[in-house]
């Protein structure tokens, strides 16, 4: 039974937008989708005119649509954003090498510059090598940490002011569920603070840590796929070969079932998140410092990426993701690096003595 | 005996031997979409059925379009297929 578009009431509707119960024709849907993204950017001050924006680009549906829409908004509103595609090569044969070709297609279609950083270049480890050592469990734990730093490094290299990622409403809701299901209180608190805008510490500002924004945070995954479908945007649609073993899959299945029964569920989870207030202890902002190995901003002396890399180099990658293993490893790494730092200081002191006495 | 075109994308084409488009003739009158899904599950897809269906239902996370219209607007599984219809299945269950 055909329904008229609830916006223009002229054309027949093509899509039901679950988060607001709207029936929209293609044209009204494009306008609605682009306006939602624009409103998110403006209301939350995500991007400033003239900024260099690194768009985390995987060749997948979210980042493809993000790049396309940011380009449209840039031209429509004359924001003068300097848009770049920033891609990470994790070294997953048969997955990432194919998706990078799609990013290169995005580069050519949207005429945006592209910069690629690789795990191999940053850490001397590809994900294929990591998985050979640690097996099929906890792959995303390593990859997530490495990718986060890789994006920061890439953004620094191209001197971007801000990093935009394609996280959508489903992703954020899924992360909330995931952290609740795993009892990961620390990550849950962080996701609350990110949603409430209080995550950025003043120390991070001092260190000029790159800002991260999620312009698609209010749109549903369904809308992104439909937008790409109607606009005939090309994207890479294969699941990472290591993803089927990820715990996140359970949260995703559950969320999708919830959405089917009650489409509002996803936006309601985000609304609940925005209403949570943490007690003083939880919302105390962590002191940011620089990792003594690589200089990245971290809440610890040694950042997580360095801890993981050290454990892999020692053939102890599996231990890195076990709680007790992490404690003993981080102590060992800290001790090792402290000893190194002492040796450097002593060497410099000896050199100065030698220089002053000659 | 409606003849319809089935389209598979978002990775689902790997379940149909790489075929993004499959044309089928369904016998009988008043063939509902539920029957089409059953046919796909039992006759078209040979393995990894769990990527397409959950029990008898299309797996949550797979979008269904009937002639480029969201099946939510067309009665979902109770839609009666017409001659020349194009039914599209798009998986959203992959990285973005």
From TrEMBL, chain A:
Main location: cytoplasm
Protein name: Cytoplasmic tRNA 2-thiolation protein 1
Gene Ontology terms for molecular function: ATP binding; nucleotidyltransferase activity; tRNA binding
Protein family according to the UniProt entry: Belongs to the TtcA family. CTU1/NCS6/ATPBD3 subfamily.
One Pfam family recorded for the sequence: ATP_bind_3
Matching InterPro entries: CTU1-like_ATP-bd, Ncs6/Tuc1/Ctu1, Rossmann-like_a/b/a_fold, TilS/TtcA_N, tRNA_thiolation_TtcA_Ctu1
The species this protein was found in: Galdieria partita
Top EC class, one word: transferase
Keywords per UniProt: ATP-binding, Cytoplasm, Nucleotide-binding, RNA-binding, Transferase, tRNA processing, tRNA-binding
Pathway: tRNA modification; 5-methoxycarbonylmethyl-2-thiouridine-tRNA biosynthesis
Taxonomy of the source species: Eukaryota, Rhodophyta, Bangiophyceae, Galdieriales, Galdieriaceae
Intracellular or extracellular location(s): Cytoplasm
TrEMBL record, chain B:
Cellular-component GO terms for this entry: cytosol
GO process terms (BP): protein urmylation; tRNA thio-modification; tRNA wobble uridine modification
Main location: cytoplasm
Keywords of the record: Cytoplasm, Isopeptide bond, tRNA processing, Ubl conjugation pathway
Function: Acts as a sulfur carrier required for 2-thiolation of mcm(5)S(2)U at tRNA wobble positions of cytosolic tRNA(Lys), tRNA(Glu) and tRNA(Gln). Serves as sulfur donor in tRNA 2-thiolation reaction by being thiocarboxylated (-COSH) at its C-terminus by the MOCS3/UBA4 homolog. The sulfur is then transferred to tRNA to form 2-thiolation of mcm(5)S(2)U. Also acts as a ubiquitin-like protein (UBL) that is covalently conjugated via an isopeptide bond to lysine residues of target proteins.
Location of this chain's protein in the cell: Cytoplasm
Annotated positions of the 1-thioglycine modification: 96
InterPro entries: Beta-grasp_dom_sf, Mopterin_synth/thiamin_S_b, Urm1
Family recorded in the similarity comment: Belongs to the URM1 family.
Protein name as catalogued: Ubiquitin-related modifier 1 homolog
Glycyl lysine isopeptide (Gly-Lys) (interchain with K-? in acceptor proteins) cross-link, renumbered residues: 96
SUPFAM superfamilies attached to this UniProt entry: MoaD/ThiS
PANTHER family assigned: RURM1 PROTEIN (PTHR14986)
UniProt source species: Galdieria partita
Post-translational modification comment from the UniProt entry: C-terminal thiocarboxylation occurs in 2 steps, it is first acyl-adenylated (-COAMP) via the hesA/moeB/thiF part of the MOCS3/UBA4 homolog, then thiocarboxylated (-COSH) via the rhodanese domain of the MOCS3/UBA4 homolog.
Pathway field: tRNA modification; 5-methoxycarbonylmethyl-2-thiouridine-tRNA biosynthesis
